Amino acid sequence: MAINPMHQFEVYRIGPEINLGTVNLSFTNASLFMIISAITILFLLFLGTKKKLLIPSKTQFITEMSYTFIAKMINDTAGSGAKSFFPFIFTLFMFVLFCNMIGMLPYSFTVTSHIIVTFMLAATVFIGVTIIGFIKHGIKYLELFVPKGVPIILLPLIIVIEIISYLSRPVSLSVRLFANMMAGHTMLKVFGGFVISLGLLGGWLPLGFSVALTGLEILVAFLQAYVFAILTCIYLNDALNLHH
Amino acid sequence: MELEAAKMIGAGLAAIALAGAGVGIGLIFGNYLSGAMRNPSAAQKQFPNLLLGFALAEATGLFGLVVALIILFAF
């Protein structure tokens, strides 16, 4: 009766098995839900920008709201020089948000609850930001590891700490999203299991908890996408405006 | 069987890290509220920072949870 709460994170193959050398490239449920979220975003943005009314319809309103939300966020945290990175951050935010939100539907699969997906996104951000920093400032970008106003005796220690904290950025960025998603979904399933095991008489209390937790998880799903995007902006700010 | 028991104890110990996350989140929201009560006009501007601090504090606790899950399921 008690189903393993980790069962929902199982990746299985849909359709035929495709092997490219030693790499297994089969189409899985994870790929299916990534495609679903990408198509949902495309569909929403296409519908939202098709008819440009002065008094916006609901879909146009959502599209405009997400645009201004991200544009304002980039302007506030990374300065106006980061405007050319708007498409990348908008794509990142919308993809993470829709993966999280589609994962909240019953019987669906949460793509972002797998660390390889979030680590891939975080590694893209990390490598990209490092390259941008070196292109923009050249070798002077290494000054990022030397904070201003530190006594010269402490400097060797501070530089090591700064380098470690810089290198741990992709790990913390990816683990934050992955752990939040996985912990939340496991918790939902555990409380769902309580409803069944306590039966008709005592199951109402965990059922109420489940409803409240679902609300919390939707909040967390939005919040984590927001945090992912805003941390990308902060890292970008470090690369674009050194010591500001 | 002893390894199994040690795994369970280890996972339970690793989950203690979440206590720190609880303290951190409480501090962030408590301090935000007391600040917002003193100066309500500045509260709206600091709301993104509140969410950012909440997420950062929660993440450190969740690292402990990940360690617990790795002990339980990956080994």
UniProtKB/TrEMBL annotation, chain B:
Q: Which Gene3D superfamilies match?
A: F1F0 ATP synthase subunit C
Which family is annotated?
Belongs to the ATPase C chain family.
A single BP term in Gene Ontology:
proton motive force-driven ATP synthesis
Q: Tell me one Pfam family matched here.
A: ATP-synt_C
Q: Where is the V-ATPase proteolipid subunit C-like domain?
A: 9-71
The membrane topology noted for this protein in its Swiss-Prot or TrEMBL record is: Multi-pass membrane protein
Query: Which stretch is the leader sequence?
Result: none
- Which SUPFAM superfamilies is this protein grouped with? F1F0 ATP synthase subunit C
Q: What is this protein called?
A: V-ATPase proteolipid subunit C-like domain-containing protein
Report the main location listed first in the record: membrane
Q: What keywords is this UniProt entry annotated with?
A: CF(0), Hydrogen ion transport, Ion transport, Lipid-binding, Membrane, Transmembrane, Transmembrane helix, Transport
What transmembrane ranges does the database entry give?
6-29, 50-74
Location comes to: Membrane; Mitochondrion
List, in alphabetical order, the Gene Ontology terms for molecular function in this entry. Answer: lipid binding; proton transmembrane transporter activity
